Amino acid sequence: MSKPSEFLWYIPNDTKAGHRGDASDPDHNSLDTLTTQAKALEEHGWKGALIGTGWGRPDTFTLATALVARTTSFEPLIAVRPGYWKPANFASSAATLDHLSGGRVRVNVVSGPDELAAYGDQEGDQAQRYARTKEFMRLVRRLWTEENVTFNGEHFQVANSTVAPRLVPLGDRRHPKLYFGGASEAAERVSATEADVQLFWGEPLDGVRERIERLRTLGRALDRDLPPLEFGLRITTLVRDTTEQAWADAEAKVVKMAEGAAGSWQDHRHGIAVGQQRLLDLAAQGDVLDDNLYTAPGKFGGGGAGTTWLVGSAEDVARSLRKYEDLGISYFVLSDTPYLAEIKRQGTQLLPLLT
């Protein structure tokens, strides 16, 4: 029997508001505002939330720590970048927070473009970038599960390293799960061998099915020595009481985006990654794909998980998410704006249809 799917949200740790047609909030990034969101997630059936990362926004790990201290069951999916962190530093920090929180830490390893020079980092070409990511993930996992680790890689080295505190297994969980995204060939080779969970953005069902099959085949070809790779979906879900109201609101938001009234800020302004380009290219196939995958936002500034939206009533969106689940997706990271109102709405209307 397969385990039930898990549903997370998104905590926007940025000094700017979101970019899905919502207005700016001067208290958007205050600890009280974000704590209110985290507590609402606990109260409305969510497991936790992704907390994004990137230079020029508040530090992700610091925010995750603060929210863990103010909640009781909220699980942060903490985005981290090799190069911003060294493996041993990160392994120790994450082990400490995992210990203090009773095993609530999840990790999303990010390799996309960033303002590397601003924090003293540099990268070579794509092959070098993903080779470094592969070493980072392999070494962090070893530091969590082994003692007296010595590692001499091309990018990272440690000698006789033992992280404290030691992680305590919780059931079959030996360490925080390592989530990873990326659609390039280099990224998929890393995911197939090193990730616990591969995160997809909101592609049509056929695209996700094909990528799952390819990653499973690749894992076998590369002699993956970890438990089977699991899969997740990061997507915007626009839910309203009726199908008609959902589409009216979705189209109105896109009109604002087209006028520039909503801003065009997005995390992918440093260059377009392969996965992002795949989403942008979907608009050429039509404004609506599958049953209710809305591609128009990507034409007008929507990026990342805001490029495509699942639109409809709670029943419509639940039906679509079930189809992804049937393909093998078991982790869902959903969001829409305004964040707090949507945490409550979707927690009340959508989650009961899925859990």
UniProtKB/TrEMBL annotation:
Q: Which organism is it from?
A: Tianweitania populi
Which protein, by its recorded name, is this? Alkanesulfonate monooxygenase
Q: Which SUPFAM superfamilies match?
A: Bacterial luciferase-like
Q: Enumerate the Pfam families for this protein.
A: Bac_luciferase (PF00296)
Q: Does the keyword Flavoprotein apply?
A: yes
Q: Which residues form the Luciferase-like domain?
A: 6-330
Q: Where does the sequence pass through the membrane?
A: none
Q: What are the protein's UniProt keywords?
A: Flavoprotein, FMN, Monooxygenase, Oxidoreductase
Q: List the GO biological process terms.
A: alkanesulfonate catabolic process
